[in-house]
Amino acid sequence: MINKTIANATEAVRDVVSDSVLMFGGFGLSGIPENAIKALLNKDLKGLTCISNNAGVDDFGIGLMLKKHMVKKMISSYVGENAEFERQLLSGELEVELLPQGTLAERIRAGGAGIPAFYTPAGVGTEVADGKELREFDGKLYLLERWLKADFSFVKAWKGDTAGNLIFKGTARNFNPMMAAAGKITVAEVEELVPAGELDPNHIHTPGIYVQRIFQGEGYEKRIEQRTVREG
């Protein structure tokens, strides 16, 4: 069985170049590839297109890449927790494509499935529809949306094996499995890396066929954007 293990995050991003299209798994700060993002910050990269549900926060995750002006375009669904993102958007420094969350998820899934486009009712009659084809089905208008694919997809799993099979934990699963399928090169960082054959096949969420590189991450902060607790 092929061993896809690499040493660390630095090796994982070794061939990422400026102007690449990158996908980052995660929802808010849950399930983001923390180690890969830190390694990218150590490279002199510009002009990146980043596809992610959100833009992180100012001092963590993709937010750090924005601060370093590595990103020219964001394709996202929710961006409300990042002041630097807002500043760059309003100043014209950053190109942004905002999408309904379901549309973003389906465009990524379509990219992994080899489906170049699909019709959806989400966004019809709004700015989301600008410049896109409309078609009527059964008396209702639908919007044509194209697939999303990436040069590199960076995902984070709870457990993986040396063959690249992945298991996600709880809500940290989010966008990670579909992004793993939509990248030309998918890099997985995991909290626990085990030999191939040790994972129960019934529990695997992403088969190793979609993963080209895997490494065991370290020092995960697992931050929470906003913690709300009940008094008393």
In short:
Helices cover 20% and strands 27% of the residues. With 232 residues, it is α/β, with parallel strands linked by helices.
Q: Describe it for me?
A:
GO terms for molecular function: CoA-transferase activity. It holds the Pfam family CoA_trans. This is 3-oxoacid CoA-transferase subunit A. Keywords: Transferase. The chain is an alpha/beta fold. The protein has one domain (9-114, 148-216): Glutaconate Coenzyme A-transferase (3-Layer(aba) Sandwich). 20% of the residues lie in helices and 27% in strands. It contains six helices and eleven strands. The strands form two sheets. Strands 1, 2, 3, 4, 8, 9, 10 and 11 form an eight-stranded mixed beta sheet that branches. Strands 5-7-6 form a three-stranded antiparallel beta sheet. Helix 2 links the parallel strand 1 (21-24) and strand 2 (48-51). Helix 5 (101-113) packs across helix 6. The protein is globular. The termini are far apart. The mean pLDDT is 94.
**How many structurally independent domains?**
1
Order of helical and strand elements: HEHEHEHEHEEEEEHEE
CATH top level class name: Alpha Beta
Report the strand count: 11
Fraction of residues in H or I helices: 10-25%
Total count of helical runs of at least 4 residues: 6
Rg over alpha carbons: 18 Å
Structural class: alpha/beta
CATH superfamily: Glutaconate Coenzyme A-transferase
Low-pLDDT segments: none
- Quaternary status: single chain
For the sheet with most strands, the description reads: 8 strands, mixed
Q: What is the end-to-end distance? A: 55 Å
Mean of residue pLDDT values: 94
What name does the CATH topology carry?
Glutaconate Coenzyme A-transferase
Strand content: 25-35%
> Which CATH architecture is right?
3-Layer(aba) Sandwich
Label the overall shape: globular
GO molecular function, one term: CoA-transferase activity
InterPro entries: 3-oxoacid_CoA-transf_A (IPR012792), CoA_trans_fam_I (IPR004165), NagB/RpiA_transferase-like (IPR037171)
Keywords: Transferase
Protein name: 3-oxoacid CoA-transferase subunit A
